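User: We ran a pulldown and think these components assemble together. Before we commit to crystallization trials, I'd like a predicted model of the whole complex to look at. Sequences follow.
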Amino acid sequence: MSTTETSPQHEAGTTRVKRGMADMLKGGVIMDVVTAEQAKIAEDAGAVAVMALERVPADIRAQGGVARMSDPEMIAGIVDAVSIPVMAKARIGHFVEAQVLQSLGVDYIDESEVLTPADYSHHIDKWAFTVPFVCGATNLGEALRRITEGAAMIRSKGEAGTGDVSNATTHMRSIRGEIRRLQSMAEDELYVAAKELQAPYDLVAEVARRGSLPVVLFTAGGIATPADAAMMMQLGAEGVFVGSGIFKSGNPAARAEAIVKATTFYDDADVIAQASRGLGEAMVGINVDDLPEPHRLAERGW
Amino acid sequence: MTGAGPTGRARQPAAGPAQEQRPRPVRIGVLAVQGDVREHVRALTLAGAEALLVRRPAELDQVDGLVLPGGESTTIDRLTRVFGLREPLRERIAGGMPAYGSCAGMIMLADRLLDGHPQQQTLGGLDVTVRRNAFGRQVDSFECDLEVPALPGSGAPVRAVFIRAPWVEQAGPGVEVLASVAVDGRETGVAVRQGPLLATSFHPEVTDDHRFHALFVQMVREVVGSIGPRSQAAEATTDDEGER
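Assistant: Here's a predicted model for the assembly, 546 residues in total across the polymer chains.
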């Protein structure tokens, strides 16, 4: 790789560079892939990035056991196979997995509840890295705590590996609703709001002023159809992660392309209707209510 | 790099005498199939233009100029083809519509592309060869100060944000290189202009310095023939609504 020197003020890994990378993904779909072939199908279908992992959440759920960072060999194979950005998952709190992923040259790290947490007290100090991080959140306080730790992008958690979109809607409505509530508050009420959200006052005040998070907000966890993706966009997501929904369906290439189309034209029912035709079987899915609580991934992380 | 700093050439003198009459705001579209659309809308609005989202051919018909935003160029290329925008876009650009592309937008405007996806197509218009992801992966993304004398306003350097950015590997004779950076001792273009087309490898829209957008608004005004006071564009360069 060439070394680039431009000016004495040349800086890599700044907050603006990290958050800006997420800005460039907006309006796009990021797809879970487990092989280089799947990565190419995703890229050809118009994915803005792929998430390289060993097992999609539906399989992690079915097979059980401890879920960890993927084999670097497999991640490197996917990095080589496609020209779009590649993301990969590290376990919550596992900063050495994150160091390994940065060394492999992945473009974004997902500190993910889909894997088995490595630390039940501390998340990764994400400021210590050049590579940016995305983290999951079920509510505004959780999102702001992750941003405080250095996350440059947030995704609502949903319930991964189910194909049931209900938790994605709950979490997105919760985050957006709490932001609207902050916007309606008097300035002197924000101190208590920060206490209740368990988040730093300055960040809470910034969100109240902007009416949005200071980083990009995507949705994830249970999105299986073009209509699911479009609904999450209408609820305020700026883009979509699709995990098991594509490669656990009957026709992954067609479904991937349809979800990409529906994400761009999320507010145009004619386009969504057209994109949804003849896609074959969606992933079978599990109702979140049928999952015993200890098996709900969204409850990992705090 | 030693001493070989960013280069550029001034196009015209700074702000001329202000006129009193205010022209109708030029109407500039932002191609909104994917990418950092909202940042461009904000920058254009602050630079004095009326900004519209363009996702359909009919929306393209309503604009005087177009911004091609940052994003994933393979996705933007694919969606413009799938939704029947590619040919209308090529016709408008060939017909002289001003266009500004940042990062992925620069790729879309390039006549020739290196390191693209095998099926990737560009719209073309700019007589340049652009190398995609030329500066490397995200861990290599960076920001730096760039001197760009062609910009309206104070002449202060631009804080340029490069994100998995492309560069101009080769430029035809009609292309003016507005700024370049030294890579391994060789100057590579990162901001270029050719007639009504403008492109940057970096993302002015993610900063609060809107001089590139002011320059583009001015270019659109020149083309639509309702040239406003230059100082108006020059003044709309920064705002203090600190965001990122």
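The first strand of chain B starts at residue 27 and ends at 31. That may be worth checking against your pulldown data before setting up trials.

User: Thanks, that helps.
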